[in-house]
Every structure is written in structure tokens, then in C-alpha cells.
Specification:
By secondary structure, the chain is mainly alpha-helical. It has one domain. The protein has seven helices and no strands. Helix 5 packs across helix 6. The longest helix is centred in the C-terminal third of the chain and has 29 residues.
């Protein structure tokens, strides 16, 4: 049973990586069609809602939607600060400097984190 879960984890990582990897293609195509980086970032997250909602309802039922006020506030802050600004910045950089440069610079995130830790902590 443990080996099955282990392999299932690798499968999910492969699926997530593959789907994340084609994101730049869609950002480029939407940009060429006249969509702004703000629109691509919004569409990316907004259109993720229906399948995630269906999955949550299938797994947990209506009780899966219950959240405390504090949990909701933290979720909003998490979404705005980490997902919203991140996605907007990434999509804008893909349009301005290209997918390859944006991806390489994004993967330097651990370096930026270490530098910020030295500066702020």
C-alpha cells in the first residue's frame, strides 16, 4: 500500500509539472491575442475554480466549504500575496522577457529567499 502511494505521488508531480510547463505557451498565445498579463493571471486562477470546487464537493461534500472567519482571512491574504501577485509578475515577465528567462529567474526563488532572510531576519 505504501509503495502505491509513493508512486501515486510521483504521478501527481509529473502531471503538475507537465501542466505547469505548458502555462507559458498559453500566456504567450493570450498575449498575442491581445490579452493583458492581468487578464491571463486572472483567467488562470478563476478558471481553476470549477474543477477544484467539484473535486472538493466530491471528496468532502458541502462541509468541505465550511471555513472560519480567520481561515477565510488568511486564505484571502495567501491568495492575494502569493498566488495573485506571483502569477501577475510571472505572466508579465513571460511577455516582456520570454518564457525561458522568466522560468530560469523564477527558479532562483531559493536564492532570493536566502538573501531576504539575511536582510530581514
Amino acid at each position: 500500500m505504501e509503495k502505491k502511494r509513493y508512486l501515486q505521488g510521483y504521478l501527481y508531480v509529473a502531471i503538475a509539472g507537465s501542466l505547469w510547463g505548458i502555462g507559458g505557451f498559453f500566456v504567450t498565445k493570450m498575449s498575442e491575442s491581445g490579452a493583458s498579463s492581468l487578464m491571463t493571471a486572472f483567467a488562470d486562477h478563476f478558471l481553476a475554480l470549477p474543477p477544484l470546487l467539484l473535486y472538493l464537493l466530491a471528496k468532502k461534500g458541502i462541509n468541505g466549504l465550511k471555513i472560519s472567519k480567520k481561515g477565510l482571512l488568511v486564505s484571502i491574504l495567501l491568495g492575494v500575496l502569493t498566488k495573485g501577485i506571483f502569477k501577475l509578475s510571472l505572466d508579465t515577465s513571460m511577455v516582456l522577457v520570454g518564457i525561458a528567462a522568466s522560468t530560469i529567474l523564477m527558479y532562483l526563488a531559493p536564492v532570493w529567499t536566502a538573501i531576504m532572510a539575511v536582510i530581514f531576519f
